[in-house]
């Protein structure tokens, strides 16, 4: 069984529609794929229809923008009740922050002499409810200012670069209990990737487990073999579920092909039983 638990569609900043993403997952030989758009569950219904048609399993999820010790941390949530009011309220607040950030980023870029408009960004965001820096990057690519998203981030959109604007993210210690109360399972995405870095050490992960954290994403392209080995040993110490996934964004991120990393079936079953959905149950 091949299981990929972290992907993005055009409901956030991936380039495939949710249906196309699921069909590509089936074509790539995956049996289980989780759709985990940033701060959004709006792709679930279309993805579920495609999964039913393709005969693979969809795990409905999302990747929530949180903060921990002044750093950005991405929290994967699987199988929450999408109507749970505190979850809906948090996502509304994050999405409002995203929407408000776009004009500020456009203004910052205009101040540097770049003739980008809010409409340019809106056009790239298309059906996404989670407007973000990748859509600004796509507009800059279309204008011929940079070659691709990677260059856009390095030159203009990363923290410290001229187009960077901060936005609201929910404290991680608030989000884990909300997600858990929503019937969901909380897994920290790429804990030692680009932004989380050193704040998520073993004592921190132990304290987050007390709040309901179920697992950590170990096999991710942002993690070196040494990081993966160390994270695997921490997960064993703390009895956390270990996941592996692609973090696929369609054409939006290179070297993140579907199934490039996968999750062990036993670990997947642990997640399902924590969500109260054991296989076949
Ligand atoms: P935002 O949430 O709007 O601040 O944008 C962050 C998103 O940009 C994350 O989903 C990343 O996957 C994506 N991202 C960050 N750096 C890069 C990069 N160098 N190339 C492509 N996508 C990136
Ligand atoms: Zn993304
Ligand atoms: Fe992420
Ligand atoms: Fe992601």
Summarize the structure.
By secondary structure, the protein is an alpha/beta fold.
- DSSP, total strands: 8
Class from secondary-structure proportions:
alpha/beta
Coarse shape: globular
Q: Low-confidence segments, ≥5 residues, pLDDT <50?
A: none
Biggest sheet record: 8 strands, mixed
Proportion in helices: 40-55%
What series of H and E elements makes up the topology?
Answer: EHEHEEHHHHEHEHEHEH
Bound molecules: adenosine monophosphate, zinc ion, fe (iii) ion
Rg from Cα: 18 Å
Descriptive account of the structure:
There is one protein chain. By secondary structure, the chain is α/β, with parallel strands linked by helices. β6, α8 and β7 form a beta-alpha-beta unit. α1 packs parallel to α2, α4 packs across α5 and α5 packs across α6. The longest helix has 27 residues. It is globular, with a radius of gyration of 18 Å. The chain binds adenosine monophosphate (AMP), zinc ion and fe (iii) ion (FE) (2 copies). One fe (iii) ion binds next to loops.
């Amino acid at each position: 069984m091949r299981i990929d638990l972290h992907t993005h569609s055009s409901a956030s900043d991936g380039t495939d529609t949710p249906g196309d993403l699921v069909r590509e997952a089936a074509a790539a030989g995956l049996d289980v794929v989780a759709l985990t758009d940033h701060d959004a569950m709006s792709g679930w219904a279309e993805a579920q229809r495609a999964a039913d048609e393709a005969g693979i399993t969809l795990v409905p999820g999302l990747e929530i923008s949180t903060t921990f010790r002044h750093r950005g941390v991405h929290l994967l949530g699987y199988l929450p009740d999408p109507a749970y009011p505190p979850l809906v309220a948090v996502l509304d607040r994050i999405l409002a922050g995203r929407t408000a950030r776009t004009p500020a980023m456009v203004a910052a870029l205009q101040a540097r002499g770049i003739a980008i408009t809010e409409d340019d960004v809106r056009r790239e965001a298309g059906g996404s409810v989670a407007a973000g820096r990748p859509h600004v990057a796509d507009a800059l690519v279309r204008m011929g200012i940079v070659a691709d998203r990677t260059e856009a981030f390095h030159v203009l959109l990363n923290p410290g670069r001229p187009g960077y604007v901060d936005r609201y993210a929910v404290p991680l210690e608030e989000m884990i209990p909300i997600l858990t109360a929503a019937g969901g399972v909380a897994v920290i995405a790429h804990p030692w990737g680009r932004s989380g870095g050193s704040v998520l050490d073993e004592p921190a992960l132990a304290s987050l487990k007390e709040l309901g954290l179920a697992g950590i994403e170990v096999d991710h392209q942002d993690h070196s073999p040494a990081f993966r080995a160390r994270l695997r040993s921490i997960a064993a110490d703390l009895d956390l579920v270990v996941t592996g996934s692609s973090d696929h964004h369609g054409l939006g991120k290179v070297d993140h092909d579907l199934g490039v990393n996968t999750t062990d079936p036993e670990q997947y079953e642990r997640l399902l039983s924590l969500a109260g959905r054991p296989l076949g149950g």
